[in-house]
Design brief:
homodimer; 8 helices; disordered N terminus
């Protein structure tokens, strides 16, 4: 269900021949008079979504609303779009389910914790980008995670998101039946992020598999939940198997993020910092300052790539314009 | 792992012979020097949890932080504990993961959306109640839901929480293996809530099964998500089967809430208002005012029961004291 004729931005069409749209896969949507994006407190009849969001090229999502506000302030500075007087209002201020901020072509949205919470947000975000007729959108999840065999503070760019049995899939129940979806991510984008980390030289970044679980305590083999029926050895055996299968970090949203972005044609990457090495402990006992500085790393990495991509895009546009000027130049 | 000797409150022991503690089932916890409740920004070495929370008898949880703040303001008024100058500070102000408020014996905590989000909160809440040596705690989830065959605004008190195949169970993955847990709730408490609704006479309340899903759109047979591969008839057939199995509403947290409360010895009830009849639609198109008034119903019902239970407990205490006075009266 690509947008019909007349939806595309003519200027972009001229500059980019292979522009890709954001897809929904729902034949019922076109028959709806209005679409209420309930958990954003936005809607097609109450808001001019193309005017509000039509220029979005980058979306950055993360669990914490505070972190997503901090990201928009950071990226505004990086892209020299900051206004000292700007307050960066929360676009979803009418609800406390998610927070959303925008500056120029960058949208920053919080998604809460766990697969169901990010899935609700992604359904409504994908519809928002579709209604707003956005094209060529790249999306990043920036988050925190537990690491395996890595120094705390290392950033992991996800190669594949795997489930608790280390398989790259998302099982989803639809009308009571289990459907299996692919959790592939864009490998080129992951490589570009790794290169950015090398350019920056500020912290360690690796590409590895990310295990996505349904629970933070028992689901991640922690020994410090309210319930625990296994031993320290059981935990270490499980985490060793995970490591041997290629898992380098563990979090709670990457699989559905990968699956839904793939279905909707969004170029996607997952960038999470590891707050601790799970083979050495379970509790987050580092100081607030240390944890805070770790949490800034994914945003620094993604911010750097966005800046780089915008610069490349600007010079490509300039070159196309130069070519057009040349072609249109009167022959003498 | 009940608290050891010396943990229990002597006054309560005298008045209530069958006092029940909050259980954790984790042999590792006692060996830990500190316990950091990371997502609450609380901990055993940084906070005096018995002093802060030892008197808690009722916990009320719900998805939205705003609603849980509104609940504490409401219950303060109901119990005549309100202070016109009180600000009801967020006890978890150091984090944006959850919000927590307390007045007298009532604790109000937000849990976000979906099973993983509420499970993290419940692990830390159960440990908090355990560390604080709380006894005889009753817990309520107040929430919103989609209804089946009910007028919007009807409140459903959950009899059984069932999965997307209508079975009363929670499948949880621990160390890569699937464990099945019971989702039984306290039937006596559900009946008491139904009686409260009759006493109040303000809105319709029913007891019925609640289907707990992992997704709001495809997982609940909605036709308005970013993806939908089934027809209106498929949706209606599925919802009809759900209704015929006893399901009266659909939400996203009740199964793990029921399972974890049962494991920890917390007397628990799920009280959700239905915002729409899912057999008649998918979108929440009622006005903000109407939806807001519906959302107050679970808190009115639970508030009424808490008031009633506190009055009963006060008169029982008075009667025990009378009896003691009588027994201790000098015989002449």
């Amino acid at each position: 269900m690509a947008p019909g004729p007349g939806f595309s931005d003519e200027k972009n069409e001229t500059l980019c021949e292979s522009e890709s749209t954001v897809y929904v896969h729902n034949p019922h949507l076109d028959g709806m008079k209005d679409d209420v994006l309930y958990h954003f407190n936005l809607g097609t009849s109450t808001h001019n979504l193309p005017a509000m969001f039509g220029d979005v090229k980058f979306v950055c999502v993360g669990g914490s609303p505070w972190r997503m506000k901090s990201f928009i302030e950071y990226i505004a500075g990086e892209l020299s779009l900051e206004d000292p007087k700007a307050e960066y209002p929360n676009i979803c201020a009418g609800t406390d389910r998610y927070a959303m901020y925008k500056i120029g072509p960058v949208l920053s949205v919080s998604h809460g914790m766990g697969i169901p919470s990010i899935a609700i947000m992604l359904h409504e975000l994908i519809k928002l980008l579709y209604h707003a007729r956005c094209t060529d959108v790249t999306i990043f999840r920036i988050g925190t995670s537990g690491g395996l065999g890595l120094e705390p503070g290392t950033v992991v760019v996800t190669k594949q998101s795997v489930d608790a049995t280390f398989l790259p899939r998302l099982e989803q129940v639809i009308l009571g039946n289990t459907v299996v979806r692919s959790t592939d991510l864009d490998q080129g984008l992951a490589e570009e992020l790794l290169q950015c980390s090398k350019d920056l030289g500020q912290f360690e970044t690796v590409i590895g598999n990310t295990m996505c679980t349904m629970d933070f305590y028992e689901g991640q083999a922690r020994l410090d939940g309210a319930f625990c029926s296994y031993t320290e050895k059981d935990k270490q055996d499980y985490l060793t198997k995970a490591y041997e299968s290629g898992v380098r970090n563990i979090e709670m949203e990457s699989s559905v993020f990968a699956a839904m972005c793939k279905l909707s044609g969004l170029k996607a990457a997952v960038v999470c910092v590891t707050l601790l090495d799970r083979q050495k402990g379970d509790q987050l006992i580092s100081s607030h300052e240390v944890l805070h500085s770790y949490q800034q790393r994914p945003q620094i990495l993604v911010g750097h790539l966005i800046k780089k991509m915008l610069q490349t895009s600007a010079s490509a546009s300039a070159s196309v314009l130069d070519k057009k000027t040349l072609l249109q130049a009167p022959t003498t």
